[in-house]
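Task: sequence design from structure.
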Protein backbone atom coordinates (compact mmCIF):
# COMPACT_ATOMS: atom_id res chain seq x y z
CA UNK A 1 0.00 0.00 0.00
CA UNK A 2 2.81 2.40 0.92
CA UNK A 3 4.64 1.58 -2.34
CA UNK A 4 1.46 2.26 -4.31
CA UNK A 5 1.08 5.65 -2.64
CA UNK A 6 4.72 6.49 -3.39
CA UNK A 7 4.33 5.52 -7.05
CA UNK A 8 1.09 7.51 -7.30
CA UNK A 9 2.76 10.57 -5.75
CA UNK A 10 5.73 10.23 -8.12
CA UNK A 11 3.48 10.09 -11.17
CA UNK A 12 1.35 12.96 -9.86
CA UNK A 13 4.30 15.30 -9.29
CA UNK A 14 5.92 14.45 -12.61
CA UNK A 15 3.49 17.04 -13.92
CA UNK A 16 5.17 20.39 -13.05
CA UNK A 17 1.75 22.05 -12.76
CA UNK A 18 0.93 19.85 -9.76
CA UNK A 19 4.13 20.93 -8.00
CA UNK A 20 3.26 24.59 -8.56
CA UNK A 21 -0.29 23.95 -7.31
CA UNK A 22 1.05 22.32 -4.12
CA UNK A 23 3.32 25.29 -3.46
CA UNK A 24 0.49 27.76 -4.11
CA UNK A 25 -1.46 26.10 -1.25
CA UNK A 26 1.09 27.67 1.09
CA UNK A 27 0.41 31.11 -0.36
CA UNK A 28 3.37 31.40 -2.73
CA UNK A 29 3.43 31.75 -6.52
CA UNK A 30 5.74 29.33 -8.33
CA UNK A 31 6.19 29.18 -12.09
CA UNK A 32 5.86 25.89 -13.90
CA UNK A 33 9.03 26.58 -15.89
CA UNK A 34 11.03 26.72 -12.64
CA UNK A 35 9.89 23.18 -11.85
CA UNK A 36 10.87 22.03 -15.33
CA UNK A 37 14.31 23.60 -14.90
CA UNK A 38 14.70 21.89 -11.51
CA UNK A 39 13.88 18.51 -13.08
CA UNK A 40 16.46 19.14 -15.82
CA UNK A 41 19.08 20.03 -13.19
CA UNK A 42 18.37 16.75 -11.39
CA UNK A 43 18.92 14.83 -14.62
CA UNK A 44 22.16 16.72 -15.27
CA UNK A 45 23.32 16.08 -11.70
CA UNK A 46 22.59 12.36 -12.10
CA UNK A 47 24.62 12.24 -15.33
CA UNK A 48 27.45 14.21 -13.69
CA UNK A 49 27.53 11.88 -10.67
CA UNK A 50 27.59 8.92 -13.06
CA UNK A 51 30.61 10.41 -14.82
CA UNK A 52 32.44 11.24 -11.58
CA UNK A 53 31.74 7.88 -9.91
CA UNK A 54 31.99 5.97 -13.25
CA UNK A 55 28.50 4.49 -12.99
CA UNK A 56 26.73 2.60 -15.74
CA UNK A 57 23.55 3.61 -17.53
CA UNK A 58 21.31 1.57 -15.24
CA UNK A 59 22.85 3.05 -12.09
CA UNK A 60 22.59 6.60 -13.45
CA UNK A 61 18.97 5.92 -14.39
CA UNK A 62 18.16 4.73 -10.86
CA UNK A 63 19.77 7.85 -9.34
CA UNK A 64 17.91 10.12 -11.76
CA UNK A 65 14.59 8.36 -11.12
CA UNK A 66 14.90 8.70 -7.35
CA UNK A 67 16.03 12.32 -7.71
CA UNK A 68 12.92 13.13 -9.77
CA UNK A 69 10.76 11.40 -7.17
CA UNK A 70 12.34 13.22 -4.19
CA UNK A 71 12.72 16.69 -5.70
CA UNK A 72 9.02 17.79 -5.55
CA UNK A 73 8.79 17.12 -1.81
CA UNK A 74 12.05 18.98 -1.17
CA UNK A 75 10.82 21.96 -3.20
CA UNK A 76 7.44 21.96 -1.45
CA UNK A 77 9.09 21.66 1.98
CA UNK A 78 11.13 24.81 1.33
CA UNK A 79 7.93 26.79 1.00
CA UNK A 80 6.25 24.89 3.81
CA UNK A 81 9.06 25.98 6.16
CA UNK A 82 8.46 29.63 5.30
CA UNK A 83 4.70 29.12 5.63
CA UNK A 84 4.96 27.52 9.07
CA UNK A 85 7.42 30.16 10.25
CA UNK A 86 4.99 32.90 9.19
CA UNK A 87 2.08 31.17 10.95
CA UNK A 88 4.11 30.86 14.15
CA UNK A 89 5.07 34.54 14.04
CA UNK A 90 1.46 35.59 13.39
CA UNK A 91 0.00 33.49 16.21
CA UNK A 92 2.74 34.54 18.61
CA UNK A 93 2.09 38.23 17.87
CA UNK A 94 -1.68 37.73 18.03
CA UNK A 95 -1.67 36.03 21.43
CA UNK A 96 0.62 38.65 22.92
CA UNK A 97 -1.32 41.65 21.61
CA UNK A 98 -4.82 40.29 22.18
CA UNK A 99 -4.03 39.47 25.81
CA UNK A 100 -2.43 42.86 26.47
CA UNK A 101 -5.43 44.57 24.93
CA UNK A 102 -7.89 42.39 26.84
CA UNK A 103 -6.00 43.06 30.07
CA UNK A 104 -6.52 46.76 29.49
CA UNK A 105 -10.17 46.53 28.38
CA UNK A 106 -11.86 43.15 29.05
CA UNK A 107 -13.96 43.12 25.89
CA UNK A 108 -13.27 40.72 23.04
CA UNK A 109 -14.35 43.05 20.25
CA UNK A 110 -12.03 45.79 21.52
CA UNK A 111 -9.12 43.35 21.73
CA UNK A 112 -9.73 42.08 18.20
CA UNK A 113 -9.98 45.58 16.76
CA UNK A 114 -6.72 46.57 18.45
CA UNK A 115 -4.93 43.49 17.11
CA UNK A 116 -6.27 44.07 13.59
CA UNK A 117 -4.50 47.44 13.51
CA UNK A 118 -1.18 45.87 14.51
CA UNK A 119 -1.10 42.80 12.25
CA UNK A 120 0.71 43.19 8.88
CA UNK A 121 -1.61 43.94 5.97
CA UNK A 122 -0.54 40.88 4.00
CA UNK A 123 -1.01 38.53 6.95
CA UNK A 124 -3.77 35.87 6.76
CA UNK A 125 -4.15 36.36 10.52
CA UNK A 126 -5.30 39.94 9.91
CA UNK A 127 -8.09 38.64 7.66
CA UNK A 128 -9.08 36.02 10.25
CA UNK A 129 -9.22 38.66 13.01
CA UNK A 130 -11.26 40.96 10.76
CA UNK A 131 -13.76 38.17 10.06
CA UNK A 132 -14.09 37.39 13.78
CA UNK A 133 -14.68 41.06 14.61
CA UNK A 134 -17.28 41.31 11.83
CA UNK A 135 -19.05 38.26 13.26
CA UNK A 136 -19.29 39.84 16.72
CA UNK A 137 -20.53 43.17 15.37
CA UNK A 138 -23.11 41.82 12.93
CA UNK A 139 -23.92 38.16 13.67
CA UNK A 140 -23.40 37.64 17.40
CA UNK A 141 -26.59 36.67 19.26
CA UNK A 142 -27.81 34.21 21.86
CA UNK A 143 -28.16 31.58 19.13
CA UNK A 144 -24.67 32.38 17.81
CA UNK A 145 -22.42 32.47 20.90
CA UNK A 146 -19.46 34.77 21.38
CA UNK A 147 -17.00 31.89 21.24
CA UNK A 148 -18.10 31.08 17.68
CA UNK A 149 -16.31 34.20 16.45
CA UNK A 150 -13.01 33.15 18.03
CA UNK A 151 -13.55 29.58 16.84
CA UNK A 152 -13.10 30.84 13.29
CA UNK A 153 -9.54 31.84 14.16
CA UNK A 154 -8.89 28.59 16.04
CA UNK A 155 -9.89 26.49 13.04
CA UNK A 156 -7.32 28.25 10.85
CA UNK A 157 -4.57 28.17 13.49
CA UNK A 158 -4.80 24.97 15.51
CA UNK A 159 -2.81 25.97 18.57
CA UNK A 160 -3.51 25.08 22.20
CA UNK A 161 -2.21 28.40 23.52
CA UNK A 162 -4.56 30.22 21.18
CA UNK A 163 -7.47 28.18 22.55
CA UNK A 164 -6.39 28.88 26.13
CA UNK A 165 -6.34 32.64 25.50
CA UNK A 166 -9.75 32.54 23.83
CA UNK A 167 -11.23 30.40 26.62
CA UNK A 168 -10.15 32.95 29.22
CA UNK A 169 -11.54 35.85 27.20
CA UNK A 170 -14.92 34.19 26.60
CA UNK A 171 -15.33 33.10 30.22
CA UNK A 172 -14.32 36.50 31.54
CA UNK A 173 -16.71 38.44 29.29
CA UNK A 174 -19.62 36.03 29.78
CA UNK A 175 -19.22 35.11 33.47
CA UNK A 176 -16.83 37.64 34.96
CA UNK A 177 -14.23 36.86 37.61
CA UNK A 178 -10.66 37.86 38.37
CA UNK A 179 -8.79 37.45 35.11
CA UNK A 180 -5.63 39.44 35.85
CA UNK A 181 -3.48 36.58 37.13
CA UNK A 182 -4.55 34.24 34.34
CA UNK A 183 -3.66 36.83 31.68
CA UNK A 184 -0.22 37.29 33.21
CA UNK A 185 0.43 33.55 33.23
CA UNK A 186 -0.81 33.15 29.67
CA UNK A 187 1.56 35.91 28.62
CA UNK A 188 4.36 34.21 30.54
CA UNK A 189 3.48 30.89 28.88
CA UNK A 190 3.58 32.58 25.48
CA UNK A 191 7.03 34.00 26.21
CA UNK A 192 8.30 30.55 27.24
CA UNK A 193 6.80 29.03 24.11
CA UNK A 194 8.45 31.66 21.92
CA UNK A 195 11.84 31.16 23.58
CA UNK A 196 11.76 27.35 23.41
CA UNK A 197 10.47 27.31 19.82
CA UNK A 198 13.11 29.77 18.62
CA UNK A 199 15.81 27.65 20.27
CA UNK A 200 14.38 24.57 18.60
CA UNK A 201 14.25 26.27 15.20
CA UNK A 202 17.92 27.24 15.44
CA UNK A 203 18.87 23.75 16.55
CA UNK A 204 16.90 22.23 13.67
CA UNK A 205 18.79 24.38 11.19
CA UNK A 206 22.11 23.43 12.79
CA UNK A 207 21.28 19.72 12.77
CA UNK A 208 20.15 19.86 9.15
CA UNK A 209 23.35 21.69 8.20
CA UNK A 210 25.37 19.00 10.01
CA UNK A 211 23.52 16.27 8.09
CA UNK A 212 24.29 17.96 4.77
CA UNK A 213 27.98 18.39 5.65
CA UNK A 214 28.20 14.76 6.76
CA UNK A 215 26.62 13.56 3.51
CA UNK A 216 29.02 15.68 1.44
CA UNK A 217 32.02 14.33 3.38
CA UNK A 218 30.86 10.74 3.00
CA UNK A 219 30.45 11.10 -0.76
CA UNK A 220 33.83 12.83 -1.00
CA UNK A 221 35.66 10.17 1.01
CA UNK A 222 34.01 7.33 -0.91
CA UNK A 223 35.11 8.92 -4.19
CA UNK A 224 38.61 9.83 -2.95
CA UNK A 225 39.55 6.31 -1.81
CA UNK A 226 39.22 4.44 -5.14
CA UNK A 227 40.75 7.36 -7.06
CA UNK A 228 43.85 7.30 -4.87
CA UNK A 229 44.15 3.54 -5.20
CA UNK A 230 43.74 3.74 -8.97
CA UNK A 231 46.40 6.46 -9.19
CA UNK A 232 49.06 4.64 -7.18
CA UNK A 233 48.06 1.15 -8.27
CA UNK A 234 46.63 1.47 -11.79
CA UNK A 235 46.52 -2.28 -12.18
CA UNK A 236 43.83 -2.38 -9.47
CA UNK A 237 40.77 -0.78 -11.06
CA UNK A 238 37.79 -1.47 -8.78
CA UNK A 239 35.70 1.34 -10.28
CA UNK A 240 34.98 -0.74 -13.37
CA UNK A 241 33.54 -3.65 -11.37
CA UNK A 242 29.80 -4.23 -11.09
CA UNK A 243 29.99 -4.54 -7.30
CA UNK A 244 31.55 -1.07 -7.02
CA UNK A 245 28.92 0.48 -9.27
CA UNK A 246 26.02 -1.11 -7.41
CA UNK A 247 27.52 -0.19 -4.03
CA UNK A 248 28.10 3.40 -5.13
CA UNK A 249 24.58 3.67 -6.53
CA UNK A 250 23.18 2.36 -3.23
CA UNK A 251 25.27 4.90 -1.29
CA UNK A 252 24.03 7.80 -3.43
CA UNK A 253 20.41 6.68 -3.14
CA UNK A 254 20.64 6.30 0.64
CA UNK A 255 22.36 9.69 0.93
CA UNK A 256 19.58 11.30 -1.11
CA UNK A 257 16.94 9.65 1.04
CA UNK A 258 18.70 10.82 4.20
CA UNK A 259 18.77 14.39 2.90
CA UNK A 260 15.06 14.24 2.02
CA UNK A 261 14.20 12.74 5.41
CA UNK A 262 16.13 15.39 7.35
CA UNK A 263 14.64 18.12 5.19
CA UNK A 264 11.14 16.83 5.91
CA UNK A 265 11.81 16.72 9.65
CA UNK A 266 12.79 20.40 9.57
CA UNK A 267 9.46 21.36 7.96
CA UNK A 268 7.65 21.44 11.31
CA UNK A 269 4.26 22.80 12.29
CA UNK A 270 5.46 25.04 15.14
CA UNK A 271 1.93 25.64 16.44
CA UNK A 272 1.19 22.10 17.50
CA UNK A 273 2.63 20.32 20.49
CA UNK A 274 0.03 17.63 20.71
CA UNK A 275 0.16 13.86 20.88
CA UNK A 276 0.39 11.88 17.67
CA UNK A 277 -1.98 9.35 19.27
CA UNK A 278 -5.72 9.58 18.73
CA UNK A 279 -8.06 9.87 21.70
CA UNK A 280 -8.95 6.19 21.41
CA UNK A 281 -5.29 5.19 21.27
CA UNK A 282 -4.56 7.28 24.37
CA UNK A 283 -7.44 5.64 26.26
CA UNK A 284 -6.27 2.18 25.17
CA UNK A 285 -2.69 2.96 26.25
CA UNK A 286 -3.79 4.17 29.68
CA UNK A 287 -6.11 1.18 30.13
CA UNK A 288 -3.30 -1.21 29.23
CA UNK A 289 -0.97 0.27 31.84
CA UNK A 290 -3.59 0.73 34.57
CA UNK A 291 -5.17 -2.71 34.15
CA UNK A 292 -2.17 -4.75 33.01
CA UNK A 293 -2.71 -8.39 34.08
CA UNK A 294 0.72 -9.79 34.84
CA UNK A 295 -0.35 -13.45 35.48
CA UNK A 296 -2.21 -13.62 32.16
CA UNK A 297 0.58 -11.93 30.23
CA UNK A 298 3.20 -14.13 31.92
CA UNK A 299 1.39 -17.25 30.69
CA UNK A 300 1.42 -15.80 27.16
CA UNK A 301 5.17 -15.21 27.51
CA UNK A 302 5.70 -18.87 28.43
CA UNK A 303 3.87 -19.92 25.30
CA UNK A 304 5.93 -17.54 23.17
CA UNK A 305 9.16 -18.88 24.69
CA UNK A 306 8.25 -22.53 24.05
CA UNK A 307 9.13 -22.48 20.34
CA UNK A 308 12.64 -20.95 20.57
CA UNK A 309 13.38 -23.21 23.57
CA UNK A 310 12.38 -26.28 21.57
CA UNK A 311 14.44 -25.16 18.59
CA UNK A 312 17.37 -24.41 20.91
CA UNK A 313 17.22 -27.90 22.39
CA UNK A 314 17.27 -29.41 18.89
CA UNK A 315 20.25 -27.22 17.99
CA UNK A 316 22.11 -28.42 21.08
CA UNK A 317 21.45 -32.03 20.15
CA UNK A 318 22.84 -31.33 16.67
CA UNK A 319 25.71 -29.39 18.30
CA UNK A 320 24.89 -26.16 16.48
CA UNK A 321 26.22 -23.93 19.24
CA UNK A 322 25.67 -20.54 17.53
CA UNK A 323 22.10 -21.37 16.54
CA UNK A 324 21.43 -22.66 20.06
CA UNK A 325 22.75 -19.41 21.55
CA UNK A 326 20.51 -17.37 19.22
CA UNK A 327 17.50 -19.48 20.20
CA UNK A 328 18.35 -18.99 23.88
CA UNK A 329 18.44 -15.22 23.40
CA UNK A 330 15.08 -15.29 21.59
CA UNK A 331 13.61 -17.45 24.34
CA UNK A 332 14.82 -15.01 27.01
CA UNK A 333 13.22 -12.08 25.19
CA UNK A 334 9.98 -14.00 24.62
CA UNK A 335 9.85 -15.10 28.27
CA UNK A 336 10.16 -11.46 29.38
CA UNK A 337 8.02 -9.89 26.64
CA UNK A 338 5.24 -9.03 29.11
CA UNK A 339 7.66 -7.06 31.30
CA UNK A 340 9.21 -5.31 28.29
CA UNK A 341 5.77 -4.51 26.86
CA UNK A 342 4.55 -3.09 30.17
CA UNK A 343 7.62 -0.92 30.71
CA UNK A 344 7.47 0.49 27.19
CA UNK A 345 3.74 1.19 27.51
CA UNK A 346 4.19 2.81 30.92
CA UNK A 347 7.03 5.01 29.66
CA UNK A 348 4.96 6.15 26.67
CA UNK A 349 1.94 6.71 28.92
CA UNK A 350 4.04 8.77 31.29
CA UNK A 351 5.26 10.92 28.39
CA UNK A 352 1.69 11.49 27.21
CA UNK A 353 0.53 12.41 30.72
CA UNK A 354 3.44 14.83 31.18
CA UNK A 355 2.44 16.45 27.88
CA UNK A 356 -1.30 16.63 28.68
CA UNK A 357 -1.27 17.57 32.37
CA UNK A 358 -0.12 21.20 31.92
CA UNK A 359 -2.96 21.71 29.44
CA UNK A 360 -5.49 20.40 31.96
CA UNK A 361 -3.94 22.37 34.81
CA UNK A 362 -4.28 25.54 32.77
CA UNK A 363 -7.98 24.77 32.29
CA UNK A 364 -8.40 24.23 36.04
CA UNK A 365 -6.59 27.48 36.74
CA UNK A 366 -8.91 29.37 34.41
CA UNK A 367 -11.97 27.75 36.00
CA UNK A 368 -10.69 28.72 39.45
CA UNK A 369 -10.59 32.34 38.31
CA UNK A 370 -14.39 32.14 38.08
CA UNK A 371 -14.99 30.00 41.15
CA UNK A 372 -12.66 28.84 43.93
CA UNK A 373 -14.61 25.58 44.21
CA UNK A 374 -12.05 22.96 43.22
CA UNK A 375 -14.62 20.16 43.14
CA UNK A 376 -16.75 22.02 40.58
CA UNK A 377 -13.68 23.00 38.56
CA UNK A 378 -12.47 19.37 38.35
CA UNK A 379 -15.93 18.16 37.27
CA UNK A 380 -16.23 20.92 34.65
CA UNK A 381 -12.77 20.19 33.23
CA UNK A 382 -13.51 16.55 32.42
CA UNK A 383 -15.56 17.30 29.31
CA UNK A 384 -12.65 18.86 27.40
CA UNK A 385 -9.79 17.08 29.18
CA UNK A 386 -7.09 15.19 27.22
CA UNK A 387 -8.08 11.56 26.66
CA UNK A 388 -5.02 10.20 28.51
CA UNK A 389 -6.24 11.88 31.72
CA UNK A 390 -9.94 10.99 31.53
CA UNK A 391 -9.96 7.84 33.65
CA UNK A 392 -7.79 9.41 36.35
CA UNK A 393 -9.93 12.58 36.41
CA UNK A 394 -13.15 10.59 36.77
CA UNK A 395 -11.62 8.71 39.70
CA UNK A 396 -10.56 12.03 41.20
CA UNK A 397 -14.05 13.48 40.80
CA UNK A 398 -15.72 10.39 42.28
CA UNK A 399 -13.27 10.32 45.19
CA UNK A 400 -13.92 13.98 46.00
CA UNK A 401 -17.69 13.45 45.88
CA UNK A 402 -17.38 10.44 48.17
CA UNK A 403 -15.22 12.19 50.77
CA UNK A 404 -14.83 15.95 50.11
CA UNK A 405 -12.59 16.48 53.15
CA UNK A 406 -10.08 13.74 52.37
CA UNK A 407 -6.77 14.36 50.67
CA UNK A 408 -6.57 10.78 49.37
CA UNK A 409 -8.24 11.47 45.97
CA UNK A 410 -5.68 14.23 45.30
CA UNK A 411 -2.67 12.23 46.50
CA UNK A 412 -3.70 9.13 44.53
CA UNK A 413 -4.22 10.98 41.24
CA UNK A 414 -1.94 9.17 38.74
CA UNK A 415 0.33 8.31 41.65
CA UNK A 416 1.63 5.10 40.05
CA UNK A 417 3.48 7.11 37.38
CA UNK A 418 5.61 8.92 39.95
CA UNK A 419 5.52 12.36 38.34
CA UNK A 420 6.52 14.70 41.17
CA UNK A 421 5.21 17.85 39.49
CA UNK A 422 1.72 16.35 39.32
CA UNK A 423 1.78 15.37 42.99
CA UNK A 424 2.89 18.87 43.94
CA UNK A 425 0.16 20.54 41.88
CA UNK A 426 -2.51 18.24 43.29
CA UNK A 427 -1.34 19.08 46.80
CA UNK A 428 -1.91 22.76 46.04
CA UNK A 429 -5.40 22.02 44.68
CA UNK A 430 -6.26 20.15 47.89
CA UNK A 431 -5.00 23.08 49.97
CA UNK A 432 -7.31 25.42 48.04
CA UNK A 433 -10.22 22.97 48.33
CA UNK A 434 -9.83 22.55 52.08
CA UNK A 435 -9.10 26.21 52.74
CA UNK A 436 -5.96 25.29 54.70
CA UNK A 437 -3.41 27.03 52.58
CA UNK A 438 -4.14 30.65 53.39
CA UNK A 439 -4.87 33.11 50.61
CA UNK A 440 -6.62 31.16 47.81
CA UNK A 441 -5.79 33.74 45.14
CA UNK A 442 -2.09 33.53 46.04
CA UNK A 443 -2.26 29.74 45.77
CA UNK A 444 -3.94 29.99 42.39
CA UNK A 445 -1.10 32.26 41.27
CA UNK A 446 1.36 29.66 42.49
CA UNK A 447 -0.44 26.92 40.55
CA UNK A 448 -0.38 29.05 37.43
CA UNK A 449 3.34 29.72 37.88
CA UNK A 450 4.01 26.00 38.30
CA UNK A 451 1.94 25.32 35.22
CA UNK A 452 4.09 27.69 33.18
CA UNK A 453 7.12 25.67 34.27
CA UNK A 454 5.39 22.41 33.32
CA UNK A 455 4.47 23.83 29.93
CA UNK A 456 8.11 24.74 29.36
CA UNK A 457 9.22 21.22 30.29
CA UNK A 458 6.58 19.69 28.02
CA UNK A 459 7.64 21.92 25.12
CA UNK A 460 11.31 21.11 25.69
CA UNK A 461 10.65 17.36 25.91
CA UNK A 462 8.70 17.37 22.63
CA UNK A 463 11.48 19.32 20.93
CA UNK A 464 14.17 16.99 22.25
CA UNK A 465 12.32 14.04 20.74
CA UNK A 466 12.29 15.70 17.34
CA UNK A 467 15.96 16.68 17.64
CA UNK A 468 16.88 13.10 18.55
CA UNK A 469 15.35 11.95 15.26
CA UNK A 470 17.38 14.58 13.40
CA UNK A 471 20.52 13.51 15.27
CA UNK A 472 20.01 9.96 14.01
CA UNK A 473 19.90 11.34 10.47
CA UNK A 474 23.27 12.96 11.26
CA UNK A 475 24.75 9.65 12.43
CA UNK A 476 23.31 7.73 9.50
CA UNK A 477 25.80 9.08 6.91
CA UNK A 478 28.70 7.64 8.91
CA UNK A 479 27.06 4.21 8.64
CA UNK A 480 26.61 4.75 4.91
CA UNK A 481 30.25 5.75 4.48
CA UNK A 482 31.49 2.92 6.68
CA UNK A 483 29.56 0.34 4.72
CA UNK A 484 30.75 1.75 1.40
CA UNK A 485 34.39 1.78 2.52
CA UNK A 486 34.10 -1.86 3.63
CA UNK A 487 32.81 -2.77 0.17
CA UNK A 488 35.57 -0.79 -1.57
CA UNK A 489 38.37 -2.22 0.56
CA UNK A 490 37.04 -5.74 0.04
CA UNK A 491 37.10 -5.16 -3.71
CA UNK A 492 40.66 -3.78 -3.47
CA UNK A 493 41.80 -6.80 -1.48
CA UNK A 494 40.24 -9.22 -3.94
CA UNK A 495 41.76 -7.31 -6.87
CA UNK A 496 45.26 -7.35 -5.30
CA UNK A 497 45.04 -11.07 -4.60
CA UNK A 498 43.84 -11.77 -8.12
CA UNK A 499 46.63 -9.63 -9.60
CA UNK A 500 49.38 -11.28 -7.51
CA UNK A 501 48.07 -14.77 -8.22
CA UNK A 502 47.92 -13.93 -11.92
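Answer:
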Amino acid sequence: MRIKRSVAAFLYYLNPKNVSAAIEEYGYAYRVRNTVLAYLLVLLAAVASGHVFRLGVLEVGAVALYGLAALPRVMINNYKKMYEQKRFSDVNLYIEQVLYSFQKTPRIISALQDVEKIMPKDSPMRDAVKEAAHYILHEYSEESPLGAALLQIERKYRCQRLRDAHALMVKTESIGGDYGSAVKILLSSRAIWETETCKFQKECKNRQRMVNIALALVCGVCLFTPLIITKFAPEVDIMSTKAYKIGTMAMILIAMRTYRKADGMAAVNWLENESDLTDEEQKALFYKVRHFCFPHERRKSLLYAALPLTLGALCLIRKWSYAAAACAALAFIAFNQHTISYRLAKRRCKEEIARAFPQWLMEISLLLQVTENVNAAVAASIEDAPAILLEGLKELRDGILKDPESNEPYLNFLREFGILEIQSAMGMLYAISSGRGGDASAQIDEILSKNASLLSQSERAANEGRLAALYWQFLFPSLIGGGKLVVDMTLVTVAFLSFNMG
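DSSP finds 19 helices and no strands in the chain.
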